[in-house]
């Protein structure tokens, strides 16, 4: 079975990670910081924004791929993929502007966690239903 829908969102989210990586590299060059942040708050924040994306996106894509392999509907897959993409963009924008509370940071993480929860529930439900039928 193909995982075409997951592949679409993997490509889009990889572009987001690339953009966030580029931002870190440009700040490193501008501030002449090779490793770490050397106390530069804007660089530390950019590093954290990138790190947060790298922490959440792979597990969500793995869950999406597994759900798609198990036969999840295209609307379900696009719904979770779009929610993940919007959530990650919101979170990156919110955290980039403020380390405190922000609309983007709050709703971005809520969307991301919701996607993880829904996909996890789908996969656990699939397993229970599959094993119950045997």
UniProtKB/TrEMBL annotation:
Pfam families: MAPEG. Keywords: Membrane, Transmembrane, Transmembrane helix. The chain crosses the membrane at residues 6-25, 106-128. The keyword Iron does not apply. It comes from the Bacteria. PANTHER family: GLUTATHIONE S-TRANSFERASE-RELATED (PTHR35814:SF1), PTHR35814. This is MAPEG family protein.
